C-alpha cells in the first residue's frame, strides 16, 4: 500500500487519501493492498456481520466465492465462523487463494481467554491458519495485553497478519507503547456520512491500512439524493457508487449482503471511475454520523 497521502477537502473536513494510479484505476476484483508486513489483502471482500448462522451465511459465502470474491470477513461474535469455514471448504478453491479475517471478542479479553478464543475460532473455521486476526474493540485495560498475546500467536505462524478494529488514535498510541508489531490494519465504521478523517489520517501516517465496515451505512444511504443522482449519471446503483468511492480512496471494503443478486452486483465496480468532482461531492456528505457504536462509549 502506498502510504504517501495527499489532502482532499470534504466540506470543513480535510482527510488523507492514497494516490490512485492509472494501474489502480483499471484494477479488478483481484486487486490487493500490501500490508505493512508485506502480506497482500484483497481490497474488496464480503462481510458477514448479522448474516444468520446456518444456510444464510453459508449461501452468501458460496455465492460470493462463485462471483470472484476472495476475501471473507467474520468474527467470533457473529456466531457464523463455522458456516464461513464450511462454505470455503465446499468451494474447493485452494486455501491460499482465499483471505479469511476473524476477530477476538471483548469478553474473551476480559476473561483472559485470548489464546483459547483464537483456537476456538480456528477450529470452527476448520483452518490451519487465519490470514488476519483483529482485536474487535479497544476494551479498556485489556487491549494492550491482548495485543501482546496476539503477537505471540502471530510469531508462532498461525496468523499471517494482526490488526485492530474500532481503534481511535489514542488507543493506538497506547498500544504502540508496548507493541513490538505495528498493527497491519484498522477496521472502522466508514461511509459517506462518517469519513473519520482523524483516524484515517493517523493510520496512513503510521502505515496502518484502513478497512471500512458498514461501508454502505447499513443500507441507509442507498436512497440519499446526492448518491442516487450520481448513480443515475453513471447508470449504476447507489451501492456501486459508494463502493467505488471507497476503492478510489484506497480503502479495503467489505460490504455485507445475503442476497445473491446484490452480492454479484456489488462486484461491478471496475468498469467505471468516479470523476474527481463526484468523489468530492460524496466526501462533502460527511456528518460524523454513526450507525454503529462509538469506540469511546461502547458497553459490550
Summarize the SSE layout with pairings.
Elements: E1 5-10, E2 13-18, H1 22-25, E3 32-34, E4 40-42, E5 46-47, H2 55-66, E6 71-73, H3 81-91, E7 99-104, H4 106-110, H5 114-125, E8 130-135, H6 143-155, E9 159-165, H7 169-178, E10 185-189, H8 197-206, E11 209-213, H9 225-234, H10 238-248, E12 252-253, H11 260-265, H12 276-283
Parallel strand pairs: 5-6, 6-7, 7-8, 8-9, 9-10, 10-11, 11-12
Antiparallel strand pairs: 1-2, 3-4
Helix pairs in contact: 2-3, 3-5, 9-10
Give a written overview of the molecule:
The chain has helices spanning 22-25, 55-66, 81-91, 106-110, 114-125, 143-155, 169-178, 197-206, 225-234, 238-248, 260-265, 276-283, and strands spanning 5-10, 13-18, 32-34, 40-42, 46-47, 71-73, 99-104, 130-135, 159-165, 185-189, 209-213, 252-253. The two termini are 33 Å apart. The protein has an eight-stranded parallel beta sheet. Strands 1-2 form a two-stranded antiparallel ribbon. By secondary structure, the chain is α/β, with parallel strands linked by helices. The model is unreliable at 1-25 (pLDDT under 50). The longest helix has 13 residues, at 143-155. Helix 9 crosses helix 10 (238-248). Strand 5 (46-47), helix 2 and strand 6 form a beta-alpha-beta unit.
According to CATH, the fold-level topology is: TIM Barrel
- The total beta strand count reads 12
Helix content: 25-40%
Characterize the overall form.
globular
The CATH homologous superfamily is called NADP-dependent oxidoreductase domain
Q: Extract low-pLDDT stretches.
A: 1-25
Rg (CA only): 18 Å
